[in-house]
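User: Second chain of the day. Same drill as before.
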Amino acid sequence: MTTPENQPLTCADVDWDARAASFDEEPDHGLRDPAVRRAWAGRLRDWLPGPSGDVLDLGCGTGSLSLLASEQGHRVTGVDRSPAMVALAREKLAGRDAVVLLGDAASPPVAGRRFDAVLVRHVLWALPEPARVLRHWLGLLRPGGRLVLVEGVWGGADPVGIPAERLLALLAPVAAGTRLERLSGDALLWGKAVADERYAVVATGPVSGQQRGEAAAAGE
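Assistant: Same format as last time:
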């Protein structure tokens, strides 16, 4: 649910309830500009398996991506730790095949459910133990499901975030496959030109026991 520009290294001390009312003012948060909205909708169609899948949107914020996924025919479960964000997301998704839960993105309150896609935008960079969290998220997928991670590195003198190479390295032992898309050059996604690192990784998995054995035998 975060935009890491000008933020501290973690989001634990950020008052997201206080920021909820103005959160959608950022072009890539509220998706109010039709061109920005179309840009994200097009990406989601490519990233999410479908149609009509079960999508878990972790750190969903005010629910803008959840709404896009719902409009594309998916059944959506959003999770956010901020009660104010959850309230706004529930308003945005009212009347749709969607539910928004109050909870921790690192350990979502989904009671053993499995999903066709887990969607996480600008959340992993701020969480402790990212390797453990990634394993857990991959474990929430049904066979053939996709973990969609939108991340980046923001700032010049004191950058925050997670580089794509590090994220791919964290996923290598636990995901069956990964696909990297560089997003910095698509100004429509952000409502402006950006020079920092922004990207998406679409991972499949988790790695099976047979695949782990084959990798070990190959010395990987």
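DSSP finds nine helices and eight strands in the chain.

User: Great, on to the next one.
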